[in-house]
Task: inverse folding
């Protein structure tokens, strides 16, 4: 390829990356900060040692929060600043996935895949949240790119790039181990076919030693997290639905709230699949021939091994994972989709691509203009601040929602989590106690009848009703408001 061909390609790729960044930054502060984002912001506000110690007490490694800590010290602590780091990571994914697909398949498939990743509601959603999912997706795909280069050329920069990318992924999220395991399986299954030279085999062993020593400072904490039962991320909750649910989320994210949205987006994507299948199924040999067998193996290993392990783990522990942290499998799905579009004739690729974009448009629009109205902590805080008086206090259940409410109240009013972070009887710090009729009266040591209390109840449930009934027994309700799934009740002391 001549220099004249390279420069326009780089220009177009830069334009696609800027488009991706623009989509991820558009109305970035539209949604109020949610629970996990507020925790990330609180943890990242600590010094380096505090971040590491906080991460050790949490369920995630510390790299994202270390990066976020430096980021917010430069750009501030607004919703926009908090999420813009993830937006940048999401935009950088575009040239990385382009380079990966161009190396594995061809440039036509690379353009299709990069375009899909740019407009993907799933990847846009990851990039608009102040959490580590976007960084994990970027690092995982980057590791696959350097891994592919290492398999094919074994150059020193491929080795260094792969080692750095996969180690950073391990320090970002424990699902990074799924990526590493998939790559090991690929090497194992390809023995004799990959024809790795002795030099490459030695380099692979050196990489593993580097990862072992590089991750050694965190190994004891990782083991402690595992010994406490492992992570508890959310899934679909029904084992036989997990594969279908994962595929659905990889295509449209989670911002299709209504049944109508889901039917429309799903129907358009199904129509695109039928359009492509009508041509590709009879010509499957040509489509299969677009990629080398080793490329097919890499894609399928990258999809099915991580998902299979997570689904298998779900058998004994329902709701154990969140598809947001499986971005590397979602990227592999887009890669397959991009390869399919590239194998279609021009007319069919335009029709199928147009249907996909139409299906993407619905959840994308929801993210920009609808998504986030359910638990609007910005609105809740504004309601309280409008009527707050001196010596007021706030009570919130569940207690871990203190962080998003506290972010918007800016310490204007003390917030007490229910159950409290300490034993109200002994005053000793310990785990939260569960609310039931047997311990509801323990709240009397937290809230007296001398102050007004803003009771904030998140979602519905028996504990929420018990708490409301307890406050009704000692206080008079003065004001009520419902904001999505959040109830706000102002209680005043009863006058004897």
Result:
């Amino acid at each position: 390829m001549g220099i004249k061909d390279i420069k326009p390609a780089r220009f177009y790729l830069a334009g696609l990356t800027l488009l991706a960044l623009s989509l991820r930054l558009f109305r970035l502060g539209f949604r109020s900060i949610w629970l996990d984002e507020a925790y990330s912001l609180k943890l990242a506000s600590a010094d380096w040692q505090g971040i590491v110690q906080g991460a050790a007490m949490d369920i995630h490694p510390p790299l994202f929060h270390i990066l976020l800590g430096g980021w917010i010290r430069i750009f501030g602590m607004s919703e926009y600043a908090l999420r813009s780091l993830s937006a940048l990571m999401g935009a950088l994914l575009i040239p990385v996935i382009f380079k990966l697909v161009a190396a594995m398949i061809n440039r036509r498939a690379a353009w299709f895949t990069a375009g899909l990743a740019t407009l993907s509601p799933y990847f846009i959603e990851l990039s608009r949240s102040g959490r580590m999912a976007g960084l994990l997706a970027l690092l995982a795909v980057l590791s696959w790119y350097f891994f592919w280069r290492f398999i094919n050329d074994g150059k020193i920069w491929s080795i260094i790039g792969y080692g750095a990318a996969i180690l950073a992924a391990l320090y970002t999220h424990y699902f990074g181990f799924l990526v590493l395991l998939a790559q090991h399986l690929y090497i194992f299954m390809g023995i004799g076919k990959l024809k790795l030279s002795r030099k490459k085999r030695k380099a692979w062993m050196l990489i593993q030693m580097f990862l072992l020593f590089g991750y050694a400072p965190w190994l004891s904490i990782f083991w402690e997290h595992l010994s406490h039962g492992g992570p508890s991320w959310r899934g679909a909750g029904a084992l036989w639905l997990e594969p279908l649910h994962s595929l659905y989320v990889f295509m449209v994210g989670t911002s299709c709230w209504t049944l109508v949205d889901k039917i429309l987006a799903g129907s358009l994507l199904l129509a695109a699949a039928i359009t492509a299948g009508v041509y590709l199924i009879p010509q499957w040999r040509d489509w299969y021939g677009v990629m080398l067998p080793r490329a097919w193996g890499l894609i399928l290993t990258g999809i099915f091994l991580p998902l299979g392990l997570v689904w298998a783990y779900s058998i004994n522990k329902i709701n154990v994972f969140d598809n947001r942290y499986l971005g590397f499998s979602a990227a592999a799905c887009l890669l397959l989709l991009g390869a399919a579009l590239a194998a279609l004739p021009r007319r069919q690729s335009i029709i199928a691509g147009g249907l996909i974009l139409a299906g993407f448009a619905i959840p994308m629009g929801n993210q920009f203009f609808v998504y986030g109205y359910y638990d609007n902590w910005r609105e809740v805080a504004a309601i309280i601040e409008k009527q707050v008086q001196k010596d007021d206090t706030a009570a919130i259940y569940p207690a871990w929602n203190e962080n998003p409410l506290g972010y918007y109240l800016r310490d204007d009013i003390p917030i007490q989590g229910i159950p409290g972070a300490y034993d109200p009887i002994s005053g000793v710090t310990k785990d939260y106690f569960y609310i039931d009729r047997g311990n509801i009266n323990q709240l009397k040591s937290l809230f007296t009848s001398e102050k007004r209390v803003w009771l904030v109840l998140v979602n519905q449930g028996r504990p929420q009703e018990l708490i409301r009934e307890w406050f009704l027994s000692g206080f008079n309700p003065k004001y009520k408001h419902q904001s999505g799934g959040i109830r706000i009740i102002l209680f005043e002391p009863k006058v004897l």
Q: What stands out?
A: The chain has 20 helices and five strands. The first helix runs from residue 3 to 25.
